[in-house]
């Protein structure tokens, strides 16, 4: 079943409405390309105004200065986009007197771009224009507006504000939609048995898109089945030539390298070659006129001029038009008297209006009723200080004191520390003037049994070996006086004992370097 587009808005997405809480949507169509930073800068400006915005890049590779190409791409895309603000910039007249405009459509979208016809086809597909305004407000553009980059300075910030809910009338004064500039968008002419169209676009595959739509072809030729043959008369700068092609549903219905006529995914008629470029192989250029018929047309004659811009007269066997009235230039001779006057289009192309003096003022801010000024409070009368004596402090009776607990008396004077008892082996130091007795050890005396019986305080006698090696005393000799020895041979001195059994004074020991040792005993 062939598709027939019966509405201007053709897709489910076109009927969507903006939902509260949804992300704002901004789309972009430009001829800036991707080599330069222009497209990225526009995205950055949009996100600077609306950080949560969803930015959709429809295309940045529109042919340079081809306003109609940009209009076609925007027309193809808007039914599938969410409701939002859509920017289209192909602007050869940037910085001149052409106006930057913003349009509101019946579906709720906003279209922004230069007033050169790029927005009107998309606006018609979205239900028509409800309001149009010029973008001149300083509050919704960048502080500095250059003469060559209005996409960054005007359209991107204005689109971001509209997408976030700013009313369109805040952007500038309203303009009459009928006075907007209509671009070069040739409409197809439908006659009985003839469809007159023009080439308006070539895509990257070399497919040639025509201004006519699929429903218009069926209106001119009647119900036509896939596989039937049709004739194309192509008129361009090189002359006039006829082509016979098959009307098919898609490319694969014909062998590779075979030309075909089909209805593309947007409902537009296209001339193509399976796995080839129709623009290059067939030599079809932009602006070419293409007439589609079921049978070949007669050769051009004196009454059938050909060439670009020449009026094309329907063949003698053509029936009256079915869906449109041919323009007077396409009819032979003067128009009949009883023929109705041609219908004027609702938006007649007019030359650009004279530059208007901007008399628009921004919408007034909501009037806030001023609050009634508060009545001034009366100044307080100066108070006279009256001194009154302060009342005597109330002395509360003290509670009977509880008996204090007995505290042990403590004498802060410390007890005198007891003097340490002298060691049993310590002897009083000798007087300075006392003579130092000479200690003589008798090696032959008998050991004292009592001394031997006494236990050694240390448990070891350092002189045991020395006494054992000493020679025995000769008989008849008097034993030498005993010399008391200390248990600490190096720390203490031996105390001499005289014959009476008293300890003699011990001389102060000499320095260590003057003490000669002999077999473990000291000699002084």
Give a brief description.
With 524 residues, the chain is an alpha+beta fold.
Give a topology summary:
Blueprint: E1 25-30, H1 38-49, E2 54-59, H2 67-77, E3 85-89, E4 100-105, E5 110-114, H3 120-125, E6 129-134, H4 150-163, E7 189-191, E8 194-202, E9 208-213, H5 214-221, E10 229-236, E11 239-247, E12 259-263, E13 268-273, H6 278-281, E14 289-293, H7 449-453, H8 464-469, E15 483-484, E16 495-496, E17 517-518, E18 521-522
Parallel strand pairs: 1-2, 1-3, 3-5, 11-12
Antiparallel strand pairs: 4-5, 4-6, 7-8, 8-9, 8-14, 9-13, 10-11, 10-14, 12-13, 15-16, 17-18
Helix pairs in contact: 1-4
Description:
- The relative contact order is 0.08.
- The chain is an alpha+beta fold and 524 residues long.
- The radius of gyration is 62 Å and the shape is elongated.
- Helix content is 13%, strand content 18%.
- β8 and β9 form a beta hairpin.
- The strands form four sheets. A seven-stranded mixed barrel has the order 8-9-13-12-11-10-14. Strands 2-1-3-5-4-6 form a six-stranded mixed β-sheet, with helices on both faces. Strands 15-16 form a two-stranded antiparallel sheet.
- The chain is built from eight helices and 18 strands.
């Amino acid at each position: 079943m062939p598709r027939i587009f019966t509405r201007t808005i053709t897709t489910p997405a076109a009927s969507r409405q903006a939902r509260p809480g949804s992300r704002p949507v901004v789309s972009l169509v430009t001829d800036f390309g991707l080599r330069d930073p222009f497209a990225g800068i526009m995205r950055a400006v949009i996100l600077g105004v609306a950080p949560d915005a969803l930015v959709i890049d429809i295309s940045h590779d529109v042919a340079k200065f081809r306003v109609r190409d940009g209009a076609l791409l925007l027309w193809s895309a808007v039914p599938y986009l969410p409701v939002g603000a859509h920017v289209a910039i192909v602007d050869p007249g940037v910085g001149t007197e052409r106006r930057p405009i913003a349009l509101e459509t019946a579906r709720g979208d906003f279209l922004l771009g230069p007033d050169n016809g790029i927005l009107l086809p998309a606006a018609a597909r979205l239900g028509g224009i409800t309001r149009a305004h010029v973008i001149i407000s300083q509050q919704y553009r960048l502080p500095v507006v250059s003469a060559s980059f209005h996409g960054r300075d005007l359209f991107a910030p204005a689109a971001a504000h509209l997408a976030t809910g700013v009313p369109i009338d805040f952007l500038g004064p309203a303009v009459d939609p009928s006075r907007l500039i209509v671009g070069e968008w040739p409409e197809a002419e439908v006659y009985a048995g003839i469809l007159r169209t023009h080439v308006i676009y070539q895509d990257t595959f070399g497919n040639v898109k025509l201004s006519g739509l699929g429903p218009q072809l069926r209106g001119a030729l009647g119900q036509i089945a896939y596989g039937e043959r049709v004739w194309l008369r192509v008129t361009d700068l090189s002359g006039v030539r006829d082509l016979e092609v098959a009307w098919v549903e898609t490319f694969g219905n014909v062998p590779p390298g075979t030309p075909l006529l089909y209805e593309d995914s947007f409902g537009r008629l296209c001339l193509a070659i399976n796995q080839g470029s129709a623009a290059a192989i067939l030599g079809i250029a932009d602006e070419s006129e293409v007439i589609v018929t079921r049978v070949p047309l007669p050769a051009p004659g004196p009454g059938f001029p050909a060439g670009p811009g020449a009026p094309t007269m329907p063949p003698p066997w053509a029936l009256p038009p079915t869906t449109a009235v041919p323009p007077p230039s396409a009819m032979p001779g003067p128009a009949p008297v009883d023929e109705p006057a041609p219908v004027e289009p609702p938006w007649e192309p007019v030359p650009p209006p004279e530059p208007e003096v901007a008399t628009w003022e921004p919408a007034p801010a909501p009037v806030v009723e001023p609050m009634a000024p508060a009545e001034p409070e009366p100044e307080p009368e100066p108070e006279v200080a009256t001194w009154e004596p302060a009342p005597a402090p109330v002395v509360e009776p003290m509670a009977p004191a509880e008996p204090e607990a007995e505290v042990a008396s403590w004498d802060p004077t410390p007890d005198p520390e007891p003097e340490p008892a002298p060691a049993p082996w310590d002897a009083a130091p000798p007087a300075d003037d006392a003579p130092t007795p000479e200690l003589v050890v008798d090696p032959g005396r008998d050991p004292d049994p009592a001394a031997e019986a006494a236990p050694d305080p240390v448990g070891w006698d350092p002189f045991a070996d020395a006494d054992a090696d000493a020679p025995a005393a000769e008989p008849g000799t008097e034993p030498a006086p005993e010399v008391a020895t200390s248990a600490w041979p190096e720390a203490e001195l031996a105390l001499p004992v005289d014959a009476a059994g008293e300890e003699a004074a011990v001389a102060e020991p000499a320095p260590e370097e003057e003490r000669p040792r002999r077999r473990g005993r000291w000699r002084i």
